[in-house]
Amino acid sequence: MAIGAGFGTAITIAMGRMGADTIRSAGYWTKGRQKGRPFFCLHAFDSTTLHPRVHNARIVIAFDKHGADMKTRITELFGIKHPIIQGGMHFVGLAEMAAAVSNAGGLGIITGLTQNTPEKLAAEIKKCKQMTDKPIGVNLTFLPGFSNPPYPEYIQAIVEGGVRIVETAGRSPEAYMPALKQHGVKVIHKCTSVRHSLKAERIGCDAVSVDGFECGGHPGEDDIPNFILLPLAAEALKIPFVASGGMADGRSLVAAMALGAEGMNMGTRFIATKEAPVHQNVKDALVKATELDTRLIMRPLRNTERVLNNAAVERIIKTEKEKGDATTIQDIMAEVAGVYPKVMQGGDMDAGAWSCGMVAGLIHDVPTCKELIDRIMAEADAIIAKRLPKFAAA
Fold first, then answer.
1. How would you classify the pairing of strands 136-142 and 108-111?
2. For residue 11, is pLDDT > 60?
3. Looking at the DSSP assignment, which residues form a beta bridge with residue 244?
4. In a designed cystine with 7, which of 50, 59, 84, 181 is the match (CB 3.0 to 4.6 A)?
5. Residues 16, 22, 28, 30, CA torsion sign
6. Structural contact between residues 5 and 384, judged by C-beta atoms closer than 8 angstroms
7. Is 66's pLDDT higher than 80?
8. Average pLDDT, the chain
């Protein structure tokens, strides 16, 4: 039986060689039975014993011979078993993807704007709910002026479909918060900086996804990686947050929690799963890719996107080097507009630029979502219960 370590122990060990009294000060032990099985549990509730500026961290990890069950404010907020979220991804976050993640104990998310009408989103939600009875969410990305989707009607489809979790991204969701909150929707907003995270907290978001510079898609313009961004977020925020960008395995989850997160969001890693509704060429490309194979585009437009390198991306980079700050979206429209169906469904790897995180370097296989999530939790269990205690003072 793996007896005992949790957030307090992991953090204490990670921060230095401290004694048992320090470890115990992070929480308290309980012993009992869960579903007829004995377990030992460390409740790590007083995060100020770990760092005076960290707010309200609350993580409970119960161990028995079957492994670890983690309870964090994220699992409690969304009613999920594991603190793992599948972020919204264009032409990836379909019903099959979201249901597979939710059935495996995480939070699966349908990408709202992949469905080009609210009616199609309603049908996709209905389809997903026929595939799982677990919580699901919907991603709504508020686009930066390129188009103006009928957001009130999308929200209506979400609410009428019985979904009570929404991941927002892009522009601030402030204008739509009253409509979401009126119906009891929990909102987690994707942020690439502490200042944006604090704004999300102020306008009533229930949680945030803190996206470091490593992430696929849009990492913002500050270029701050997660080893800096996550602890800064932990110092500033009162609401819970998950780590996004570079998340792939149990090591990612434990590290994210050590830095103050209460779960993790994975995008690129979930594309390389059996249930992901994308062409096999996409999955093969992710397994083949290394950490050196992503590029940053649209920097002159201040709409930076991290993408997997290909012929189209090389053309974009060439154009941006030639035109510099004079680059316009029209200059690269052929490489960025209407690309995702060609790549994700058609398997044309050079059709255009498509989002991919540096985490591709950590992707070596294409498991099922259940295999992936179970493996992550088993790895996290082993790290917390077996590896980290070795560094504690005797």
1. parallel
2. no
3. 211, 265
4. 59
5. positive
6. yes
7. no
8. 87
pLDDT band at 3 (very low <50, low <70, confident <90, very high): very low
Write the CB contacts of 266 (distance below 8 Å, at least 6 apart in sequence).
84, 85, 86, 87, 244, 247, 248, 359
Token pair recorded at residue 340: 């995702």
Backbone angles phi, psi at 349, to 5 degrees: -70, -15
Q: Tens of pLDDT along 14-57?
A: 333 333 333 333 343 344 444 444 444 444 434 444 455 555 65
Q: What is the C-alpha separation between 146 and 259, in angstroms, rounded?
A: 36
C-alpha–C-alpha distance, residues 369 and 70, integer Å = 18
pLDDT at 35: 45
Identify the structural domains of the chain with CATH numbers, from first to last.
7-71+378-391 (no CATH), 76-277 (3.20.20.70), 280-360 (no CATH)
For residue 134, the 8-state DSSP code is S
What is the mean predicted confidence (pLDDT) over 169-186?
Answer: 97
Q: What is the DSSP string of 6-73?
A: -HHHHHHHHH----HHHHHHTEEEEEEEETTEEEEEEEE--GGGT-TT-----EEEEEETTEEEEEEH
Question: Residue 232: left if φ>0, alpha if ψ -120 to 50, beta else—which one?
Answer: alpha
Cβ-contact 107, 129 below 8 angstroms: no
Task: Measure the CA–CA gap between 210 and 197, rounded to whole angstroms.
Answer: 7
For residue 35, the tally of other CB atoms under 10 A from its CB is: 8
Contact 169, 189 (CB under 8 A): yes
What is d(CA 42, CA 5) in angstroms, rounded to the nearest whole number?
7
Average of per-residue pLDDT across 271-275: 98
